[in-house]
Amino acid sequence: MGPYAWTWNGEALVLVPCLVVAYALAVRVYPASRARMAAFSLAVGLMLAVFATPVQTIALRYLLTAHLLQNVVMAEWAPALIVLALPPALAAALGCAPVVRTLTRPAVALPLWLGTYFAWHVPAAYDFALRHPVTALHLEHLSYLVAGILLWWPVLQDLPHRLTSGARAAYVFAAFVLGSPLGLLLALLSSAVYRTYRDGPGLWGLDPLSDQQLAGLTMAGEQAVVFFAVFAVFFLRFLREEEAHGTTLSRG
């Protein structure tokens, strides 16, 4: 199979349709705004873009950079958009479940996300998943999605845990500081650590080490942009709230 072959897999054939059906049924009971539905559509589009196109073929056999792009979509971008797409009433209803209430606590969600991210990037686990694309690789991507949803929930939803803007900013900053070393480590290592790509055919003139360095730098750069942008939104909101609070006290 050439690197530009179009393929279909469990993420595109099963996961995405299940998410679409679940969301469609949910918004019939808990109506969503157009902006929230657009966020969900973008999440679906991103997942299809990396799993129902040649990106999937390249990720499986040729370039670590392509696989890390899939991981970023499943662990960061798509989960954030899915959480943002949930109507507040639906988020409140889901938050009533004890398991959701527990897993979306910041002190639980952040370690789960970090643990999932780092564990799957251990070379032995990474290569094992790539050697078993019908089982372990699907589990990897599903675990990224679930952990990512838990990570973003306390940031983008008010229930079941209503955090202040300052707490949300600190939480996102902590996620960036603790998560970004993974990409930097991959970029700074002096040898390629994943056998699948080290022994693979390569693509676009990238040797395995250059591919790994590019993947690590791209991952670290992406996290810097995304997490800092979200941090900035909530930090500026925190400053405005503090200013408004100070004004109210001075008038009183």
Description:
This protein has 252 residues and is mostly helical. The protein is built from 13 helices and no strands. Helix 7 packs antiparallel against helix 9, helix 8 packs across helix 9 and helix 11 runs antiparallel to helix 13. The longest helix is centred in the C-terminal third of the chain and has 44 residues. It is globular and about 70 Å long. The mean pLDDT is 92.
Number of helices: 13
Q: How many strand segments?
A: 0
Mean pLDDT figure: 92
Helix content: over 70%
- The stretches of 5 or more residues where confidence is low (pLDDT under 50) are none
Rounded to an integer in angstroms, the radius of gyration calculated over CA atoms is 20 Å
Largest sheet: none
Outline the fold blueprint.
Elements: H1 10-29, H2 34-51, H3 54-61, H4 64-85, H5 88-95, H6 98-103, H7 106-120, H8 123-131, H9 136-156, H10 165-179, H11 181-188, H12 195-198, H13 208-251
Can you give me a brief rundown of this structure?
The chain is mostly helical and 252 residues long. It has helices at 10-29, 34-51, 54-61, 64-85, 88-95, 98-103, 106-120, 123-131, 136-156, 165-179, 181-188, 195-198, 208-251.
Attribute tags:
252 residues, mainly alpha, 13 helices
